[in-house]
Amino acid sequence: MYPSLRQLTAVIAATLLLLISLGSPLLAANDTQLPGPLAVPGGVAHVLLPIDSATPPTAYFGNHRLWVQSTLGTRYQAQAPWLALVGIPLETPVGAQQIDVGKQAFAFVVAAKQYAEQRLIIKDRRKVNPNPLDMERINSEKTRMLSALAHWSEPELMISRFQRPAPGPFSSPFGLRRFFNDQPRKPHSGLDIAAAKGTPILAPAPGVILDAGDYFFNGRNLILDHGRGLISMYSHLERIDVQIGERISTGDMLGTVGNSGRVTGPHLHWTISLNNARVDPLLFLDPAQP
Length: 290
Prior knowledge:
By secondary structure, the protein is mainly beta. The chain has two helices and 20 strands. The longest helix is centred in the middle third of the chain and has 18 residues, at 132-149. The protein starts with a helix and ends in an 11-residue tail after the last strand.
């Protein structure tokens, strides 16, 4: 005897509720919980994948794996079953780009964005022009940090929105073209939050501590893995209160705001990395949060 339509509907509904309760990566949050879309250097592109698959297809932008999720519950649901969220590096050229899913390619277009300029005077000249011994340390730290920022994991629960990690105004926005002592440097790859020394830094979302240490430029530095290539980093801390490998919940104390490393004063430098691309943290902040 075949089940009735009502019985089938009940089974499907129960299955969906179970998947939601388990934090299934196959179920997408609604549109307000997705970062972007803002397909510019330093932004996040939404690329639809019309691929018939029961599980998320594996997609890459360059050599970096992408976060792919179901479109269920989003405005894209009627257009394609899967959505790739693509972090776009600041150095990406404007124009046509593509992501790769096996032998298939899916195109998207990167639009131009003009970021402001910032000029800073750094009193410690070694932080602008490091000596050879400093460069050995810097290169070693860079390798360690880039490895953490490129990390991939499969989380139990998909995270796509963050709370603010510290109170205070945004003092230096993401993407600034920076000059230290009139010397050009790489664009500002994070968002600065002006806060007094000792201000608590709270985890903006669940994750696992990937790295904790004292860096030449970043000072006391933390890197937190949220899964699927989504990584957050916290720099210039006064104190670190967590350990590598520790599992963190939203609101847990990470440390305190400081002025370690290359700074002009106390603040929190907050970085968001998606598929190893530094992107604007404002795209991930909960719009309902002041």
